[in-house]
Amino acid sequence: MAKKEHLIDVQPIRSKAQIEDMKWALKRHCSERDYILFLIGINTGLRVSDILNLKRDSIFKLKSKKRKEFQIREGKTKKARMINITPIFNEVITYASELDSDWLFPSRKGDKPISKIQAYRQLQKAGDFAGIQSIGTHTMRKTFGYHFYKKANNVAMLQEILNHSHPKITLTYIGSNKEETDNELDNFNL
């Protein structure tokens, strides 16, 4: 099932209204867990595997800090990265406070987090209800990257956040080049 994601062209969610639709669908048709996973994903740019490995304690340790950030070691790159969740902290801590598990995204099948396949299924389900196509686990990371780039207009900073080796990789990843090309082609007429 996870390989299927590679067959579709997963794009960022470019519209803020569609992001809100996705949040609504996750809360209404999935669960608070799935909503918080999406919220962290679109606000940090973490890969889904790194999000799923988060522990509840990493959130609780932030209570007394002004800047709600913690360090992780990314699974794919093995690089250390600071994760700032200050803007979404209240929602995340409220959710984390109600958990009985050490994992932030616990599975019902033993003491472990949900699988990437389960995360994918829930995102797909919410995407169907929200009327958003081409949803996958990379949608969250790409959505973060797209909106960060549009707001900050700093590809070098985004490249560093996403741990990409070249700015062109970053722009391609977030679909910026495709969007700009599509916009030009939409208005091209000889």
Automatic annotation (TrEMBL):
Residue span(s) of domain Tyr recombinase: 8-186
Any one GO MF annotation of this record: DNA binding
Keyword Membrane: no
Record's keyword terms, sorted: DNA recombination
Source taxon at top rank: Bacteria
Keyword Endoplasmic reticulum appears in the UniProt entry: no
Classification via SUPFAM superfamilies: DNA breaking-rejoining enzymes (SSF56349)
GO biological process entries: DNA integration; DNA recombination
PANTHER family reported in the protein's UniProt record: INTEGRASE_RECOMBINASE YOEC-RELATED, PHAGE INTEGRASE-RELATED
Protein name as it appears in the record: Integrase
Organism: Niallia nealsonii
